[in-house]
Design goal:
This protein has helices spanning about 10-25, 35-40, 45-50, 55-75, 85-100, 105-110, 125-140, 150-175, 180-200, 205-219. The protein is mainly α. The protein folds into two domains: about 10-50; about 85-219, no CATH class. Helix 5 runs antiparallel to helix 9 and helix 7 packs across helix 8 (about 150-175). The N and C termini lie far apart (about 45 Å).
């Protein structure tokens, strides 16, 4: 592939855009920094000033999805005073809305990992972001009677938040409904179930959510 004319120095934004564009147009990912930079008219040193490797760039794309979703959410009216349940719902709705705008790339990236993406290294940054967000939102929510258990509860919530995102991500990749409306239902039911468990009133929600999963997975 011939080199494109020299362009302006790469920014974090156009590096990610160029990487995603190359992957989508060719159906595969750049194999070297050299070929990627040559294609887009950049010097290798300009790339390395931003990222240490192509894998680091792929990881940054996932981190950016998180950053953009959280930024949109924080700019919405009433966010600061919203209860934790509404914040979590809002985050998942916004995050998967952004993924939907980039679905072809996201599916290509996830499907490149065999047999699955749950331990995928390039999601490690996203995992840390999710866990930090959980601590920020739930760090001071431990009931007084459970103060001695606060650290363990905080870790449990952080890991639970991450596990929930992985479940929803897996669900979304298989969702063929119009507008991904079934993913929206899964978000609502899973978040409500988690919070009802925390509120010690889980039974009705758990049964309802279980029926939904059985219907979607085995129908």
């Amino acid at each position: 592939m011939p080199a494109r004319p020299k362009t302006q120095k790469p920014t974090p934004e156009n590096l990610m855009e160029a990487y995603m564009q190359t992957a989508l147009e060719t159906g595969s990912f750049p194999v070297s920094v050299y070929s990627f930079c040559k294609e887009h008219g950049w010097e290798e040193a300009e790339f390395y000033a931003r990222h240490g490797s192509l894998e680091g760039l792929r990881k940054a794309i996932w981190n950016t999805f998180f950053d953009q979703a959280l930024q949109r959410l924080e700019q919405s009216e009433g966010f600061e005073d919203a209860p934790a349940r509404e914040k979590v719902l809002g985050f998942f709705y916004t995050f998967f809305e952004l993924l939907g705008l980039n679905r072809s790339y996201v599916l290509l990236d996830l499907q490149a990992e065999k047999p699955g993406f749950r331990q995928m290294e390039r999601l490690s940054g996203l995992r840390n972001q999710i866990r930090d967000l959980s601590r920020a939102w739930f760090g001071n929510t431990t009931p007084p009677a459970m103060k001695k258990m606060a650290p363990a509860r905080e870790r449990l919530l952080a890991e639970g938040f991450w596990a929930q995102l992985l479940f929803l991500l897996d669900f979304w990749t298989k969702d063929e409904s119009a507008g991904f409306e079934k993913t929206d239902i899964a978000i609502e039911k899973s978040v409500n179930t988690i919070f009802d468990v925390l509120d010690h009133t889980p039974l009705e929600r758990v049964i309802d959510f279980g029926k939904f999963l059985v219907r979607e997975r085995f129908s």
